[in-house]
Specification:
single chain, 363 residues, mainly beta, four-stranded antiparallel beta sheet, 32 strands, globular
């Protein structure tokens, strides 16, 4: 498959005899693409596929996000590095130059450049549990480590070495950074009722905020922090039952939209809006400035197959506001549905692996 390299240049025109208009390459995108075996376009989406537990089949799909092109590389990590990513791709984040992938069951964190070429892999020491989710702040990578006890690791992104660790609650999952603090959801394997607050400057836990049982997804937007508690496991419904959205950055959890029975399954944010998919695939928005819920779906013309599927990923391209919605049946490769910034359905494509769970973007 041939991939186009998008070049930008300004045509220099000879006007009025020998007078030239200025020509500049200042808008040329510079990529950290060292070692790449593939010629890639500038507009890039990297989608992490979790894989099946114990299957050692996690991978990363590349997608070209230009309007007129939909080129896909099924597992760019494999093609660029000649090996598989590992067992359970848990989470993926990026800064302006690199991508960081947490591979949970393989107990490692892999740093890639902007072309998906591995730069370094950090193996988590045996005295810690499995790494789960990550946040980037001030050139440091903060990663939750699932176990009894639970920790957050501070990792130097330049050297990919562990600088320090701080103990939080047991079995921490998601993590978010907001106004000089880290917020960590302590699941306690389903029975936890706290979110740990860690001061970044001292790297010490300074507070535990009480929340509804089993806090999981956590997200910072508009200088506020929101967490979704799944609630206690219920054998009668073969799953959890609450999925309550709460705000926790003010030191006390307050439920949001409980009168509407939101049952938040997935959430993502763009500007000051929180986009929510419920357990029954209904779509809501929550304005974090006004504190109002809008029940009108933010997705338009979604295929029937999406409504009938389990939404496993909701990610928004920060550069253009496009929505990427991924589905998972835990057996077959997932499907990615792409929507424009106004929610209009654009296209769908196979995710290239089981369980698409996150994505990062370069413009």
């Amino acid at each position: 498959m041939n991939y186009r390299k998008v070049f930008r240049a300004v045509l220099c025109v000879l006007v009025a005899g020998m007078v030239f208009m200025g020509c500049s390459d200042d808008d040329k995108v510079t990529r950290n693409d060292g070692g790449s075996l593939i010629d890639l376009p500038d507009a890039r989406v990297f989608i992490l596929n979790e894989g099946s537990w114990g299957g050692n089949n996690a991978g990363i799909t590349f997608y070209e996000s230009l309007d007129g092109s939909h080129d896909i590389i099924g597992d760019i990590y494999l093609q660029q590095n000649g090996k598989g990513l590992g067992d359970v791709g848990q989470s993926i984040v990026n800064d302006t130059s690199n991508i960081y992938v947490v591979v949970s069951e393989s107990k490692r964190i892999t740093k890639l450049n902007q072309a998906g070429v591995e730069q370094h892999t950090l193996s988590i020491p045996t005295n810690f549990g499995n790494p789960r989710f990550a946040a980037i702040e001030g050139g440091k990578l903060y990663v939750t480590v699932y176990g009894y006890p639970g920790y957050v690791l501070r990792i130097n992104t330049a050297t990919m070495s562990i600088e320090d660790s701080v103990r939080v609650g047991n079995n921490p999952e998601n993590i978010a950074s907001c106004k000089g603090k880290l917020y960590v959801s302590n699941t306690e394997y389903g029975s936890g009722t706290t979110v740990s607050v860690v001061d970044i400057s001292t790297f010490k836990e300074v507070q535990k905020v009480n929340v509804i049982a089993n806090p999981n997804d956590i997200l910072a937007v508009n200088n506020k922090v929101y967490v979704v508690s799944w609630g206690l496991y219920d054998e009668a419904i073969w799953g959890f039952h609450d999925y309550v959205l709460q705000r926790v950055d003010d030191g006390a959890a307050g439920a949001i939209g409980s009168e509407l029975n939101l049952k938040v399954s997935k959430m993502a944010a763009h500007n000051d809006i929180l986009y929510i998919v419920s357990r029954t695939n209904e779509c809501f928005t929550y304005n974090t400035t006004t504190g109002t819920v809008k029940q009108e779906s933010f997705l338009k013309g979604a295929p029937a197959t999406l409504s009938a599927s389990t939404v496993y990923m909701l990610t928004i391209n920060p550069y253009n506001g496009e929505f990427y919605v991924g589905t998972n049946d835990y057996v077959n490769n997932g499907t990615i549905y792409r929507f424009s910034s106004d929610g209009t359905f654009m296209t769908e494509f196979e995710s290239g692996g089981i369980g698409p769970c996150g994505a990062v973007f370069f413009k």
